[in-house]
Amino acid sequence: MSISNKAAIVLMVADSKAFRAALERGGLAGQFDVVDTAPGQKPPADVMSRTEILLAQSAAPGLLAELPRLKWVQAMTVGVDNWLARKDLAAAHMLTAARGTHRVQMPENILGAIFHVTKRFHQIGLNQAKSEWVRSVSAPIAGKTLGILGLGAIGQELARKAAALEMRVIGTKRTPEAVAHVDQVHGPSELDSVLAQSDFVVMLLPATAETDNLINAARLAKMKKTAYLINFARGAQIVDDDLIAAVKGGTIAGAVLDVFRTEPLPSLHPFWTTPGISVLPHIGGLHPQRNEMVADLFVENVKRLVAGQPLKELVDRARGY
């Protein structure tokens, strides 16, 4: 049996259909051996020796070091802290994130979280289950201030949608510069000003050493007592005990959390039972066609790699995203 000498693309995902279809549409499938490998497993030895491209959510420890021709890793997620923490990710390995694939669903889910705490549909649903007619007055969000911590691609799309709902939008950006639909753009050092002005604080920051434990008791005390904290970024950016104390003590009105230090969130964690804290099961970036979205980005980058062009959404390792 002859062994191929073609460079290999390894698709380390549970379902590769969307990626294979995109490679076919792009006229690329014939240029590579495209090999499916179950997440956490290793490709066959002859494939490992020829692998130049790896698409994966994660990979077995040490695997990257066993791929001598590996040039590029395409992450399935926007956050890449798990990849950057790997000891086998070499300087020669290009790493790209799936930035841009959350543009639609993440802002919609964040707005859903804001409606959740202002429109009281959840409580109305509980009343319906008891056949109880209880009048309810929902608080308007028009005229309220939305503070976005992290005005990247998702934050900017959220700002556009929020402005259409007549919200005042402010936020932080590593390099403070004018952003469409944002009234005030602050640098990271002006975080406290954003916290003090906002009725809803949305966290969309990348996972870095600077953002770990960013929201603690001192920063929660800067927020309005009527304000809500909404975290769709990383669980480690909030000090859990400080948030629980702030909500229980009335320092802030409440929180909607989609990300946690440990996932799934342990059943005994007090977030589950703290009045005013809503727990979401990490729904932020999910979309029925998410694989197709990532596949489009992936194929665009395969074309760029073949053409010797810079890859899109290349991770800046110094910044951590």
The CATH homology group name of the largest domain: NAD(P)-binding Rossmann-like Domain
Mean pLDDT, to the nearest integer, reads 96
Q: Tell me the fraction of residues in β-strands, as a range.
A: 15-25%
**Total count of strands:** 12
Helical percent range? 25-40%
Describe the global form.
Answer: elongated
CATH class of the largest domain: Alpha Beta
The CATH architecture of the largest domain can be given as 3-Layer(aba) Sandwich
Radius of gyration: 22 Å
Separation of the first and last Cα atoms: 44 Å
Task: Indicate the topology.
Layout: E1 8-12, H1 17-25, E2 33-36, H2 45-48, E3 51-56, E4 72-75, H3 81-84, E5 94-96, H4 105-119, H5 121-129, E6 145-149, H6 153-164, E7 168-172, E8 184-186, H7 191-197, E9 200-203, H8 217-220, E10 228-231, H9 240-248, E11 254-257, E12 277-279, H10 290-307
Parallel strand pairs: 1-2, 1-3, 3-4, 4-5, 6-7, 6-9, 7-8, 9-10, 10-11, 11-12
Helix pairs in contact: 1-10, 4-6
Short structural summary:
With 321 residues, the chain is an alpha/beta fold. It contains 10 helices and 12 strands. Helices cover 28% and strands 16% of the residues.
Structure description:
It is a single chain. By secondary structure, this protein is an alpha/beta fold. The protein folds into two domains: about 110 residues, Rossmann fold (3-Layer(aba) Sandwich); about 180 residues, NAD(P)-binding Rossmann-like Domain (Rossmann fold, 3-Layer(aba) Sandwich). It is about 30% helix and about 15% strand. The chain contains ten helices and twelve strands. The strands form two sheets. The protein has a seven-stranded parallel beta sheet with strand order 8-7-6-9-10-11-12, sandwiched between helices. Strands 2-1-3-4-5 form a five-stranded parallel beta sheet, with no helix packed on it. Helix 3 links the parallel strand 4 and strand 5. The two termini are about 45 Å apart. The model has no long low-confidence stretch (mean pLDDT about 95).
